[in-house]
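Example 9 (inverse folding). The structure is encoded as follows.
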């Protein structure tokens, strides 16, 4: 079984019947096709309709193959034995409703919940960190939960890609907060330093002794402070970055979701269409 496309995967199981020690010269097996047989159109008849819990079962397809094996005879002759095998191919298309309800919808809601940190105050450290870390741990728990339903495989599945992107998005919100808060803290420290410089008692004495010079110094200091504030707002304003992320993060995740579901659902719907065509009936999926 292959699980690269899980949970959009299609599994094909082949059942083989053959005579291992009897050649076609002695007994040949084939699908019954006598015109007087009521099963002429359907050599394989299901005794009852089977509905697996996790799969849609397609109509079995019948095949036969003949293999030739060479044996050593006399010096100038090589004997050849023919063996016929009958094959039945069962096609299983996985039902994805359970995965959507149990994995996809909750993980998408958790990612959306992590975006609430962008609407919180930048100095609300406990609330923002707690929300991001809780969302991250919840997604990790979901990964462990879905892994229990699969055999241990060493390759990446479609579900792994979805959950990895969800975890990366939540982790990115935590990194974004750390960067913005660091910039915010540095700007606050700089403002405190500037305010302390303006409140320096020596500066007040100089202003009383030399009013003209002190006024020029004060005006220059005020201009420098305003210039630093303007530069910070233009290049690394943390509040502005937070406001941009309110739209950037949801936009990126929605773009990924559109690409992910368009690709996987197209292949899945094609498999369902083939399955319904083989069954000769239209069922509501």
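The amino acid assigned to each position is listed next.
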């Amino acid at each position: 079984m292959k699980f690269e496309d899980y949970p959009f995967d299609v599994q094909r199981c082949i059942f083989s019947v053959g005579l291992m020690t009897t050649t076609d010269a002695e007994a040949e097996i084939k699908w019954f096709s006598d015109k007087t047989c009521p099963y002429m159109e359907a050599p394989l008849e299901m005794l009852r309709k089977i509905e697996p819990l996790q799969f849609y079962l397609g109509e079995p397809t019948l095949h036969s193959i003949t293999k030739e094996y060479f044996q050593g005879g006399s010096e100038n002759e090589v004997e050849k034995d023919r063996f016929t095998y009958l094959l039945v191919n069962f096609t299983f298309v996985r039902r994805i409703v359970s995965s959507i309800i149990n994995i996809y919808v909750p993980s998408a809601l958790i990612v959306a919940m992590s975006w609430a940190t962008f609407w919180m105050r930048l100095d609300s450290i406990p609330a923002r960190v707690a929300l991001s870390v809780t969302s991250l741990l919840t997604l990790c728990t979901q990964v462990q939960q879905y892994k229990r339903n699969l055999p241990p495989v060493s390759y990446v599945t479609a579900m792994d890609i979805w959950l990895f992107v969800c975890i990366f998005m939540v982790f990115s919100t935590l990194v974004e907060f750390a960067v913005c808060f660091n910039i915010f803290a540095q700007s606050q420290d700089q403002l405190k330093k500037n305010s302390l410089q303006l409140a320096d008692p020596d500066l007040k004495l100089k202003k009383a002794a030399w009013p003209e010079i002190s006024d020029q110094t004060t005006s220059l200091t005020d201009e420098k402070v305003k210039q630093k504030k303007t530069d910070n707002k233009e290049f690394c304003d943390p509040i502005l970055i937070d406001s941009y992320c309110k739209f950037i993060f949801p936009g990126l995740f929605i773009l990924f979701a559109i690409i992910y579901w368009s690709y996987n659902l197209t292949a899945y719907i094609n498999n369902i269409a083939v399955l319904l065509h083989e069954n000769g009936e239209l069922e509501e999926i």
